[in-house]
Amino acid sequence: MLIPSRNRGGLSRRRFVTGLSAGGLVAALPRPLLARTPTAGQIPPVARPRWDLRVGRTRIEIDRKVLHAPCIGGDVPGPILRWRQGDTVSINVTNTLADEETSIHWHGLRLPAAMDGVPGLSFAGIAPGKTFTYRFPITQSGTYWYHSHSGMQEAQGLYGAIVIDPPAPDPQPCARDYVILLSEWSDVSPMDMLDNLKMQDDYYVFRQRTLASLPREARAAGGTLAALKDRLAWSRMRMAATDIADVTGVIYTYLLNGHAPDMNWNAIFTPGERVRLRFINGASMTFFDIRIPGLEMLVVAADGNAVEPVPVDEFRIGVAETYDVIVQPTQARAYTIFAQSEDRTGYARGTLAPQPGMSGPIPPMDPRPVRTMVDMGMGDMKPGESMHGMAMPGHRHGSAMAGMDMADHKTQPPMSGMPMPRHEEGAMDDMDMKDMQPAPTALGGHGHGHSLPMPAAHLHKPGTMDHDAPAADMAPVLEVDDPGPPPLNVENQNIARMPTDRLASPGDGLEHNGRRVLSYSQLRATRPGTDPRPPTREIIMHLTGNMERYIWGFNGRKFSESGPIRLRRNERVRFTLINDTMMEHPIHLHGLWSELENGQGAYRPYKHTLISQPGSKLSYLVTADAPGLWAYHCHLMLHMETGMFRTVIVE
Question: In the 3-class helix/strand/coil scheme, how is 226-265 assigned residue by residue?
Answer without folding.
Answer: HHHHHHHHHHHCCCCCCCCCCCCCCCCEEEECCECHHHCE
